[in-house]
Each structure stands twice: as C-alpha cells, then as structure tokens.
Amino acid sequence: MAAAVCLVLSLPSRAAPPSVTFITCSTTSPSTISTIPPPPPAPLLLVQEPKTTSPISPSSCALNCRHFQSCSGCTHEYNLHHPPILADVNKFFKKIGVSNFTFDSCRLWGWRCRAKLAVRGSSVKPLIGLYEEGTHNAVDIPECQAHHPRINEAVDLLRQAIVELNIEPYDEDNGTGELRYVQMAVTTYSTSLPSAERYKNGKVQVALVWNSRSESSPSFEKLNALSNYMWNKGGPRRDVHLIHSIWANFQTSMSNVIFGNRWRHLIGERDFWEHVGGIDVSMVPSSFGQANTRAFDSLLQKLQKCVPYGSSVVDLYAGAGVIGLSLAAARKCRSVKCVEVNKEAKYSFEKTASRLPTTVDCCISWHQADTSKEPLSWLIGSDVVVVDPPRKGLDPSLLTALQSLSFTKIKHNLPESTKRNVQNEKRPWILRGDTSVQINKEMGQGESQSSLPQTLIYISCGWDSFKEDCMSLLSRKAWRLEKVHGFNFFPGTHSIEILAVFKRGSGGNIKKKKSGKKKKPTRGPLDVIEDNLFEESLFDKIENLE
C-alpha cells in the first residue's frame, strides 16, 4: 500500500503574463565571476536555425576554464549558449511537425549551485574535484567556471582545513582515509538582501562524507574539528558569511555510491531554503536538488502557464513535490497529488508545504508509491499529469497506461472499490502519514474520479529516452504535441532539459506522405470486438483498484 501525507491549503489569484522564451548570453569574462557575476544580458530570440541567424560570436560565449582538458565535467568550450545537441533536437521536432520549439540558454557561467566532489590526494596536497574521463583519477578544480563562486570559495576553505588539521583523503584502492567526498549546495534565499544581490551572496551547505560507520568511530573527533574549523572561518561571525551549515554522512562501502544511509547535522542552520517557482522550498542534504537553480525557476514559471486554473493535477516522480506545490500555489488547483518512491522526500515535502500561503484552498497530498505499479490508479481523476522521470525515461507500464487513455471511456458511475479513502481536514497545516492514500476533500467537492487527464506535461533530462517516449505517445495517436521548450540546464555539456506539453487527441504531429485522396478506413466486426474487449479489460482493472 502507498503511504501518504495530506493537507488542505489555498491560493491567491495570480495573473499569468504572456510567455516568450529567449536565448541569453553574457559577454562578461568568466574570470571575473569569482567576485562579480555576469550582468543581466540583453535577450536574443532563438530561431529555428540558430547557426545562421545568431549574432553571438563563439568567443563571447566561451568557457575559458583552465581545467577543461583534464576535467570531465564539461564537454565543449565554445558556444555555451548553443550546445551541440541542439542540432539533433531541431531536426527531431522538425521531423514530427513541431515548428514552435524554443530554447533558453540560461546563465552560462557560475550556474551550478549543487556539486558532489571527490576528495583524493594527500593531507599535504588534497585534490578536490571530478574524475578524469573514463578513470578514477581525481582532478583538482579550484577555479571551475561552472560552479557558483561561493562553491569555489568553500572548496578552498575545505582545502585549507584538510592541510592544517592533517585530514587524510580517501584512498579507493585500500579503502583507507577519512574524507571521501563533499557535497556543496548553495542557497540564494535571503529576505534581508535586495533580490538583485541574493544570488552572488549565497551561502553554502557543506555535506562531508566520512569514511566511518557512525559518530562513535575513533575518527569522529577529527570530523568535529574539521566542522568547527570551517564554521569559525566561514560562519556568521566572519566579514563574509560563507557557510550555511555543515552535515556529516557516514559511508564505508567500497562501491561507487557516494552517500551512506546515516546523516548527522553538525553545525549551522538545520533548515535549508530556496525560492523557486514562486514558493519557498525546503531541502535536506539527502534530497535530490536541481543543480541549476535559476534555470529550474525559469522552467517552473513556463510550466505553470501550461496548467489551466482550477485543474486537478497528479505529479509523478515528484521527489519532494516542488513542482506540484508550486502549481498549487500558482494555478488555484482543485487538487494536487505528488507521487514519489523515495520515502526520504517526505520531510522536505512537509516543510515546504508548511510555508505555502495560508490562503491556498487546494487538496494536496504526497504519496510514497512506485508509479510503475498500477499507474492507471494515479491518472484517473486528474486533468493534468506532470511527469519528471529520471534519465532513462518513463516506466514502460506508465507509458502503456498513458497510451491507453485515448482508447478508453471511463463509466461515470464507478464502483465504490475504485474510490480512495476520503477524509475532511479542518486543520490545513496537519499532515498525516499513513499506510493508505488519503485525500482531504469529499469526492463531490474535489474531483471526479471518472475523469481522465487531458494534458500531459513531460519534463525530461534524458534526450534519447524522451525521443523514444515521445514517438510512442504520438504513434499510437493517444496524444498530440502542442508545444515544447528547451532549457540549457548544463552549459558546456551535451545535454538539454525539455519541457513538452501534450494534449489528448490524434497524434497529428507525425507527418505522413500523401497518397492521393484519403479514404475512410472500413471497420469490420473483428475491429469492433477488439475495441470492446480492450475497453472492458481496462475497466476491469479500474474496478479492481483499491
């Protein structure tokens, strides 16, 4: 059974301004980023064939990083505003008849607000960085141009502490040493600063991955000394408040898994907040977080405009529910269901939900469940489905369920067995955890359990898997691709983030060669029997849902 937490909230009305996606690029030299970030650039609209029309020169958008040849983090030095993958992206969408694809190049330097770095070398000469391509040889990257400047400053402070305190970096071959990895996460959330100054004055949450089982290990004293050193040098009493908090993670496995299961807060603020998508978002070190905070905020603002006001939304692969909660706060949703398999995300969901405006009037729930099991149960009753799967794409069972929707008509009078347990909640900030799925409104007040989604919003970080899933949705004529936007989440790499909006109906995006006058296909008895059997089979599955 799925575990769930629920609450009832409300939402202020907010007008959605017209949206235009632009490509942006700053000619500010990245060498100045460590002190001053590039100024806001003038927007330039990306057209369908950017190679021939873009007025931006390759040299003005160059990486200019001295670590490029040895570090595996970036794959190309020039045209950061125009990743090589765009050629294939444009070709694909042109092939399926999509002419309105737009691309946002986002921030080109100093964009990474979350970094996991290996700690190797020796206590005299520590190496803190990434591996060389195809090896486990760590490369020191003290002047990484992708990192938020505060991450580089925090790494430099950690390097000083390792040398002065004689901390032994991890030795992979022998499994010895003390400090294995470090995760640096920047929060730019600060209500005490003007909004224009918050990004460059971010603070760093430091997570130290320690080579021991727990706090009871003999080396824990050195870990505490390391934590205190960084706090004293970079904490709130210094002229520059660099360190937000310090956490410890305990890991002894010889595998490539970075984090162990045991965490401990050592010093600083326990709660880590960021403001994206119009809401305050809580993150713990073990949470998944987008590395490019500003690009993610741009994506959320674009996504919100694709969701009709008053919709019932299901957010699959939801993590801590950032997307679903941002929609609840921006689009006056009737209900929002966030579904995530990782139970650790529940804490961040609860904290984030507690900061939503008290005027929000929306039934919101978070469910610990695997979307690949009985996915149809999550789709029924929703107007909008949001999916944000991992790089491998949609689970086959979910893809099949989405393909089936256009061929299915759900009867209005569903049996009682299909209805989820319903409870009224008078206290909006009480979130319950239970072994059953709970929704906080009566069926008549909240949503129709016999409705099927009309909009599918697909957020993809894996281009190859998205192409396959997109073709599957279109080829079965279950959905049509209405609009699609690209975001440069990782400048300098061969990747792209896709926001695609599908609508229920004929998959008219796939072009077919004309073969003269079209004839209406004839349907025989076998076709009718096959359709009836398919519909009856699907309805049987719905009746059996508990």
Beta-strand portion reads: 15-25%
Helix content: 10-25%
Q: Count every helix, treating DSSP H or I runs of 4 or more residues as helices.
A: 13
| Most strands sheet | 9 strands, mixed
The termini sit apart by 9 Å
Shape: globular
Query: Number of DSSP strands?
Result: 20
- Overall radius of gyration: 25 Å
Category by helix and strand content: alpha/beta
What is the overall pLDDT average?
81
Q: Uncertain regions: pLDDT < 50 for 5+ in a row?
A: 10-29, 31-54, 412-447, 518-546
Multimeric state of these chains? single chain
The strand line-up of the biggest sheet is: 1-14-13-12-15-18-20-19-2
Describe this structure in words.
The chain is an alpha/beta fold and 546 residues long. The strands form 4 sheets. Strands 1-14-13-12-15-18-20-19-2 form a 9-stranded mixed sheet, sandwiched between helices. Helix content is 24%, strand content 22%. It is globular and about 70 Å long. The longest helix has 19 residues. It is built from 13 helices and 20 strands. The C terminus is likely disordered.
Protein traits:
546 residues; alpha/beta; nine-stranded mixed beta sheet; 24% helix; globular; disordered C terminus
Topology record:
Layout: E1 3-9, H1 50-53, H2 85-95, E2 102-104, E3 114-121, E4 126-131, E5 138-140, H3 149-165, E6 179-187, H4 195-198, E7 203-210, H5 220-234, E8 243-250, E9 262-268, E10 272-276, E11 279-283, H6 293-304, E12 312-316, H7 322-330, E13 335-340, H8 345-354, E14 362-368, H9 376-379, E15 384-387, H10 396-404, E16 421-422, E17 438-439, H11 443-446, E18 455-460, H12 463-475, E19 479-487, E20 497-504, H13 525-543
Helix pairs in contact: 3-5
